[in-house]
Amino acid sequence: IFEISLEGIITYVNKQAENLFGYKTQDLIGKHNNMIHIPEEYDRVRESIVRKLKGEVIQNKEFTMIHKDGSRIPGYIS
User: Fold this and answer.
1) Is this model's pTM higher than 0.85 or not?
2) Does position 53 have pLDDT exceeding 90, yes or no?
3) Rounded to whole angstroms, how far apart are CA atoms 49 and 8?
4) What residues are paired with 27 via a beta bridge?
5) What are phi and psi of 17, to 5 degrees?
């Protein structure tokens, strides 16, 4: 649905992500992924990125994500 760089920058968003998060593509591309994660999970998200940088395979990590309206939605990251 979306891709982020290893630095946490959103680099790709498809139409389904627009529907899921309530943002237009241009509102997400180039922004930090923290805008779609709850603050309580920023460290976990960053840790996953660091582990990926070390060559680990990250699969099926469950996170709580944020819709543009502030509601929380479950998400899986792989």
Assistant:
1) no
2) no
3) 7
4) none
5) -65, -40
**Separation of alpha carbons 43 and 48, rounded Å:** 9
Residue with tokens 């999970």: 41
Evaluate if residue 59 carries a pLDDT over 90: no
Amino acid at 48: S
- Residue 28 and residue 73 in contact, taking contact as beta carbons nearer than 8 Å: no
Please state the φ and ψ torsions of residue 63, each to the nearest 5 degrees: -135, 160
Token output for 74: 């479950």
Q: Hey, is 66 helix, strand or coil?
A: strand
Extract the tokens encoding 24. Answer: 């237009």
Q: Is the pLDDT of residue 30 over 90?
A: yes
Report strand pairing: 61-66 vs 72-77: antiparallel
